[in-house]
Structures are given as C-alpha cells and as structure tokens.
Design brief:
Elements (H helix, E strand, L loop, with lengths): L1 E5 L5 E6 L10 H13 L18 E2 L10 E2 L33 H14 L3 H6 L10 E3 L9 H10 L3 H9 L2 E2 L11 E2 L5 E4 L14 E4 L5 H4 L9 E4 H7 L3
Helix pairs in contact: 1-2
Length: 248
C-alpha cells in the first residue's frame, strides 16, 4: 500500500510504501478493550474508613417503647449507626478492595494498536466519526512540517492540505457541560479533531488548536487513535513518523 508525501504548500514530493501494520484487520472489540484498560490505569483508588459512622455508643432499644427498632445513643433518643440516621454509616460505600485496573493480554494490546492505526486511513470510518476533510487518506506531510514554530504556519499548512475545516468543527463544538463537573475543573467539553504524529519532538505550534492532539510515534497509543473507543480518527503523519512506525 502506497501513500503520497505532500509538501506544506500542497504539492506532491513522492510516493512511499506504508508499513505492514496499515493492512491490519479492523477489530473494534479489541480496540475498545485496549482503550478501557488504558483508561482504567488513571482511576484513583479510594474508599472509606471501615468503621466510619459506626463508632457510637448506640444500642437497640427493642420493643415496648413505641419507637422504631433502630440503635439509639445511650444518653438520648437520637438514632445512630444505621444508614438512615444522621451521622450513621453509608449504605454502600466504595470499597478499597475493589479491583479498578482492567487487564489486557500483551498480544491483544499490540493487535488493537495495529488495528487502530489501520483504521486511521479508512475514509469510511473517519467520516463516520464526523471528521471533515478534503482529499484522500492517509495524510502524509514532508518532514518540514515538524519544524514549523508558528501556529499561523501550521494553520496555513493544514488549510492547504484540506484539513483545517475539521479544527473549525471542533472549535464550534465547545460548550459548557451539564452537571457538577463544571465546579471541578471540567467546565467545557469539546469534540476531538486532528491527531498529528511526528517522529522526533511533538509539534508544539499546534498545541493550541481546538481538539488537536500532538504526539510522537513513541508516545502514540490506542486512545490517541480511538478516543471514546471509536476508531477512525483523522490523523496527519510526517514522512519520518511513517518510517519510525515500522519499529512499533
């Protein structure tokens, strides 16, 4: 399978042969499993004190006093210990012993990565995610693209390649969340846009573009290629990144 290497001005430099992993079969089940395993490692273990809410002198009164059979403190009639009482234990508290990390076999993880890479050049899957672009996938740019140090130059190159419309789509999708997340540093939600993969250092000039993620080949993982467990992300590769991908 071949791909055209384009200049940042829009011309075609040459054709290159894509690595074998771009021909991997599409396995959405493995991609979902790998992304869930990756996301589970970011969960923070937490739980309550096993004795929280039950360190009390409360005992049951029993029958004959015309009140409900709940534990009550010895020097009064206030209920305690039970979940429905003020200061009582929680009904179903989070347990420290709960297993939060989801495991995945190494070969399954590797196959999921190859499958996600292959899905990044399938136009049907890319458009199914809602991405907007002109031209044909895969999008491979010359290595000069990695050395751009101004965001305006990156925007010009992406516009020439017919990809900047997807960044504008992500920018227009930004809105305030519903719920408590607004108070916890997660006020806005926004759609994902381009994934830019370079060989050496990440393209810092593209970090502030809406919905854009910038990574190197060594940093690339399944979640970058399939955010939300849905493969087919619109991806821009540099020529050196394609060559370095053979080592993955």
């Amino acid at each position: 399978m071949k791909a055209q290497v384009k200049t940042i001005e829009g011309g075609v430099v040459k054709d290159i042969e894509l690595p074998a992993l771009f021909a991997e079969a599409y396995r959405p089940d493995l991609i979902k499993k790998a992304v869930m395993a990756l996301q589970s490692t970011r969960r923070q273990p937490h739980g309550t004190n096993p004795f929280a809410g039950i360190c009390s002198s409360a005992v049951g009164w029993g029958s004959g006093r015309g009140s409900s059979h709940v534990p009550r403190i010895k020097n009064g009639s206030r209920a305690a210990k039970v979940p429905q009482a003020k200061g009582g234990r929680e009904a179903h508290p989070p347990k420290v012993a709960k297993v939060l990390i989801k495991e995945i076999n190494q070969k399954e993880k590797q196959k999921a990565f190859r499958s996600a890479v292959a899905a990044s050049i399938c136009e049907e899957l890319i458009r199914g995610r809602g991405h907007i672009f002109a031209g044909a996938a895969p999008f491979v740019l010359e290595d000069k693209f990695e050395s751009l140090d101004k965001t305006s130059d990156v925007i010009t190159a992406l516009t020439t390649a017919g990809l900047y419309g997807d960044v504008e789509r992500a920018k227009d999708s930004k809105k305030v969340k519903a719920g408590r997340g607004k108070m916890r540093g997660r006020r806005f939600k926004q759609r994902k846009s381009l994934l830019i993969v370079t060989s050496g250092t990440p393209l810092r000039a593209a970090r502030n573009l809406s919905g854009v993620d910038v990574v190197t080949v060594d940093q690339l993982n399944v979640e970058h290629l399939a955010p939300g467990m849905l493969a087919g992300r619109l991806t821009v590769w540099t020529e050196s990144a394609i060559v370095s991908l053979e080592g993955r």
